[in-house]
Amino acid sequence: MRCIGIQMFIWAATGLYMVSMDIHFIHGETLTDDKHATFNIGDATYPISELLARFPTATDIVLYKRLDTLAYQFSVTNSKQSIVVSAQNGNELSLITQSDASHIALASVAEPANIRLTKLIDLPQAMPAELSPRWLPVWQVTFDDLAATTFYIQQSTGQIVTRRHHFWRAFDWMWRFHIMDYDDGENVANPLLTVLAILAVIAIISGVVLLISRFIPVRPSGVNTAEGVAHE
Amino acid sequence: MNKRIVISGWHKWLSLLVGLQCLIWTGTGIYFNQMDSEAASGNQYRTPVSHRDNTPSSTFTSLATLPIAEPILSAELIWISGIPLYQIKTELPLHDYVTQQHALYHAVTGLPWYIQPNDIQRIAVRSYTGPGEASVPELILPPFDFDGRQQNPLWKVSFNDEVHTDVYLDADTGRVIAHSNDHSRLKDLMLTLHFMDYTNSGGFNHPLIVAFAIATLMLAVSGLLLAYRRLPMRTARANTHIDVQVIQAGETTLLSLRANQPLFFALASAGIHVPTECGGGGTCGQCVVQTDTSVAINEVDQHHLSEDALASGNRLSCQHLCSECKVVTLK
Questions:
Q1: Half-sphere exposure of A158 (CA within 13 A, CB side)
Q2: pLDDT 10s digits, B213-235
Q3: Does the beta-carbon distance from A49 to B57 stay under 8 Å?
Q4: Chain B contacts in chain A segment 29-68 (CB below 8 A)
Q5: What global pTM score does this model have?
Q6: Model ipTM value
Q7: Which domains are delineated in chain B?
Q8: Angstrom distance (rounded) from CA B152 to CA B136
């Protein structure tokens, strides 16, 4: 039964971290600033009707600014990767280079910081767990700040598809310890948690009973009341 | 005052404050652990809605001709019930529940476009596979019970089925945001209790739960400190036993007890239960035994026992090791 005390401490500590850290901050919403990505719609001179004539199966067509170029990104049925074409002349745009990725990261980061590493990840085996394989290939741009802020920039679209910092990584570990699923933290319905939670309920109920007995005590004679008489 | 009594005092008042909430946390925790997540999603009767149609794309007007003066962040071709539209965004929040800033234009005419209640009802019905009939759509302002984080107005279409399904749709695009039913409402209630989110903030970042979490952490730490002190000391002589003469109701027995274990616990292991409330914590003062007056009086004995009792050899059995006491008389 003593072990449940340790788990209760873990629940309390991890719970405190999760409730006291603002979830929007944890999710890295404050890490980027998209002011640099605004554009005038009048500059999109290449019409969508022409794009659809060339790529009849195109879906999810989005006009946006990729680095300094106004572009359309879209999916087609036979390709897993997004296609990106210029919104000025319809030419297909080449993949984002390492220096492009660094430029995008520096333009998007909210607090000025230096880049420590820009690395291409194109294989699922080489992928950190914090990234979903559907985004591959991506540039991983890591800053040299204390939180090791990291942007994952899709090589085709140049979009920041995932962002992470140590506060989020720590949050994920807190979650894993909170739900007692220590590998990927995806299974709340694990039997270890069931057992410990039931033990905890028993422990808490016994604690409540003991607590009541401390407030409504039955005392033998010859003994001072626990709180009543201070030591002289 | 003795540190242990101070910790115990904290432990008592903290547990009075958060004890009930701890029961709620573990109880709702067991619910999340055991719940049928498929049912709790509220999506029992939900199915994806396809909006795309065959409007010839050659008729689409160019985005550049839209009457938009201010800088934007994205323009997307979307379909709503077969109608091609341009969705223009001037903000790109990472979550859908954050206030959206967007405008819709018909992709063929280039004119601003607004959704109608019949469109909403049609989309809701297409997203629904259950036996119920749809109500008239109703435009509702936040906050919403199904998701306190939602900041946008939504349409609600209710179905009169056995689980009381409500379908929520985006006010402007009619995109299905959520299905909610009795199962998901139970989960929402459990989340409210687990997050102490009684103001329906939709999250767990509010001062009430932070305060309770701090108090609970202090409770857990004080509990661990009290429990740690209770473990028999683990020294090299951990298994050394000594003989203690125990006098109970006039009968004397000779017991072989672990020398460096507190008497209270050693007696408990031998099947003799000295009266207690705190279970050997040194906080209740109940586990009094009579021993030799030469046994050193400590702060805890002094705190709980009167001068007379101490002078006649009364001591708290949780405060003294077996090795200190040769003869013990139980009360």
A1: 31
A2: 999 999 999 988 887 766 554 44
A3: yes
A4: 29, 34, 37-45, 47-49, 52-53, 56, 59-64
A5: 0.83
A6: 0.85
A7: 3-37+200-230 (no CATH), 47-180 (no CATH), 241-330 (3.10.20.30)
A8: 20
